[in-house]
Every structure is written in structure tokens, then in C-alpha cells.
Specification:
41% strand, alpha+beta, single chain, Lipocalin
Length: 251
């Protein structure tokens, strides 16, 4: 009789680890499902693309228009608010697939931007803009941390820089409240790689402020950027959109 009970006695402890594993998997499934419900129904919608009709605009009633537009203009980070996306910023938009959620547009931006623009008559002769990528913020800290560690490696490459290589002939400076469209050709240094790019821009003028917005598609492989991974992210597109909104004032 005792020998018949031995298999039952020894089998019971072996089943406990299996039950624990099942319990952990079930708990993770519940957490992912709960996160998916929150993400779909309660999470605030992401910011609109720059330059779109839904994008907020900064109000600026400070400096009047300078006597001459010639000379250097600099990015003024005090105009607008980063909280409502009316300040100067550089950022990205990337399509991703999230576990329990599906397709999602990840949007991250940084207000840590500096730069200058030089005008001579109706010609933009120089532009240089630098963004601190270590301060990129999205709606999820986990995404931000993965981006810094795995993709952009901001401990090694903390900034991205654009330099104009071909002057832009405007024909005429935009009047107060007017907007013009141009294409800027230059070099983008990102993740330690410098490549020539062309980016479509819109420039509008309001008193003593010139606001420039624009966006372009970037293929990650062109800049040796590895797509970040995590347990919640099933896949990420091999490209993204770099977008910018910059408020310049006369230096």
C-alpha cells in the first residue's frame, strides 16, 4: 500500500512549478489586456503632425518686426509651450505594432533645440540646427528608454544636427501672417552618420517671429539605427518621419 502511494507523493511537488508558470502567464495576459483597454479607450490621443490643420499654433505678440530681416535669426525656445506642442521642437513619428493593441503611431519630441538662420536680402544663406535626442519624450517612458539605449544610443550620439548646404532663394520675404513653401538641401548628422537630405519646409511670419515647420521620411538603415524591441512591441517600421517646428527671432 505504501509503495502505491509513493508516485502520488512524489508527483505533487513537480506540478507546483508548472502551476506557477501558468499563473505568471495568466497574470501577464491580464496585464497586457488591461493595458490594451486603457491604451485604446482612455489614453489621450497623440499630437497632430506639424503643419497640419489640427496642429496648434503659438501666439506671439512680443517683438515687432525688425527694421531689416538681414542678419542672423536664432531659435527661441521661450516661445510657446512644449506641453501643448506650440513651442520649438524636433521629433519623430513611427508606426509600431503593440501586443494586445495593434497598430499605433509613436510620437516623440524634444524641446531642447538650438540653431541659427542667416538671411541676406531674399536669400537664406545658412542654417544650422541641433537637437538633443537624449531628451526625446513620447507618451511612454519604456519606449523612450528603449530608444535611447537600443536605437539612437544617445550616450554615444546625444545630438542630431542639420546644416544647409545650398542657399535658398525665397524670391520675396513672407509678409506678416503669410506662409511660403521651400525645399532645403543640406546634411543631416544622426547616430554618428552624416548624409545629404532634402526636406520640405513651410515658413510663416508673425511680427518679429518666423516659424518654420517641416517633415521628411528617414530610413533607419541609412543611419545605422537598429529598431528598438520590448515585450510589448511586436514590430516597428523600418522608417519613420522626422518633423520639426522652430520659432526664430532676430538675434
Amino acid at each position: 500500500m505504501a509503495s502505491d502511494l509513493c508516485p502520488l507523493v512524489t508527483a505533487q511537488p513537480r506540478s507546483l512549478p508548472i502551476l506557477r508558470i501558468v499563473a505568471v502567464i495568466a497574470a501577464l495576459a491580464i496585464l497586457v489586456g488591461a493595458y490594451g483597454i486603457w491604451y485604446l479607450f482612455f489614453r489621450p490621443s497623440g499630437p497632430a503632425p506639424v503643419g497640419s490643420s489640427n496642429a496648434p499654433a503659438a501666439s506671439f505678440s512680443g517683438l515687432p518686426a525688425p527694421a531689416t530681416a538681414d542678419g542672423t535669426w536664432k531659435v527661441d525656445t521661450s516661445i510657446g509651450s512644449f506641453a501643448d506642442n506650440t513651442s520649438s521642437f524636433v521629433g519623430y513619428r513611427v508606426q509600431e505594432q503593440l501586443a494586445g493593441i495593434g497598430a499605433n503611431t509613436a510620437v516623440g519630441r524634444t524641446p531642447a533645440v538650438s540653431g541659427t538662420l542667416t538671411l541676406s536680402g531674399t536669400t537664406v544663406t545658412a542654417v544650422e540646427v541641433t537637437a538633443n535626442l537624449a531628451s526625446l519624450q513620447s507618451d511612454d517612458d519604456r519606449r523612450d528608454n528603449s530608444l535611447r539605449r537600443q536605437a539612437l544610443e544617445t550616450s554615444r550620439y546625444p545630438t542630431a544636427t542639420f546644416k544647409l548646404t545650398t542657399p535658398i532663394e525665397l524670391g520675396a520675404l513672407p509678409g506678416d501672417g503669410a506662409t511660403l513653401s521651400e525645399t532645403a538641401k543640406g546634411e543631416l548628422t544622426l547616430h554618428g552618420v552624416t548624409r545629404p537630405i532634402s526636406i520640405d519646409l513651410k515658413a510663416s511670419r508673425s511680427g518679429g517671429m518666423i516659424t518654420i515647420t517641416g517633415s521628411m521620411t528617414i530610413l533607419f538603415a541609412d543611419f545605422n539605427i537598429q529598431k528598438p524591441t520590448s515585450f510589448i512591441v511586436l514590430s516597428v517600421d523600418d522608417h519613420g518621419v522626422m518633423e520639426l517646428q522652430l520659432h526664430f527671432v532676430h538675434a
